[in-house]
Amino acid sequence: MLKKFDLLFQTVRHLKVRQIIYQVKYRLIKPGPLKMYGYISSNINIQPLRFMYYPPMVVSWQGKGKFSFLNIDVTFEGGVNWNFQKNGKLWNYNLQYANYLLQEAPDDKEKEQLVTELYAWLSDGRLPLEPYPVSLRSINMIRWLSLSDVNRPDLEKNVYAELNFLSQRLEYHLLGNHLLENAFALLMGGGFFSKTNWVKTGKKILKAELEEQVLADGAHFELSPMYHQIIFFRLLELIDWYSKWKDKELEFEDFLKAKAIAMRAWLKNISFQNGDIPHFNDSASGIAYATHWLMTYADELSIRESGLRLGESGYRSVMMGNYECKIDCAQLGPSYQPGHAHADALSFVLYYKGQPLFVEQGTSTYQVGDVRERERSTEAHNTVVVDKRNQSNVWGGFRVAERAIVKIVEDRENRICGKHNGYRKLGVTHKRTFNFDKNRIEIVDEVSGNDQLSKEFHLHIYPGIRTRIDSSQNVVLSNGITVTFKPGVEVVIQNYYMANGYNRYLSGKKLIVSFKNELKTTISFETSN
Question: Which parts of the chain are coiled coil (predicted)?
Answer without folding.
Answer: none
